[in-house]
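thoughts on both lines:
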Amino acid sequence: MAIKSVSIRIEEEMLHKIGYVADYEGRSVNSHILVLIRENIKAFEAANGEIEGKINPDLNVKPTRK
C-alpha cells in the first residue's frame, strides 16, 4: 500500500492541544491523527456499511501506553 502525504491547515491552539493529547497517548501528532481517522472510518462503516478496500489498522501507529 502506498503512503501519501496530506497537509492541513489547523489553528495553532488546536495543534498544541492535539499535540498534548498525542503525547499523553504516547504517539506523534501524525500517528494520533491516523488513529482518529481510522476510528472515524470504523464508525462510519458501522453505521453505513463497509467501504471497499482493506487497511491494516496498526500500520504506522504506535500502540497506546495505556
Notes: The chain has two helices and no strands.
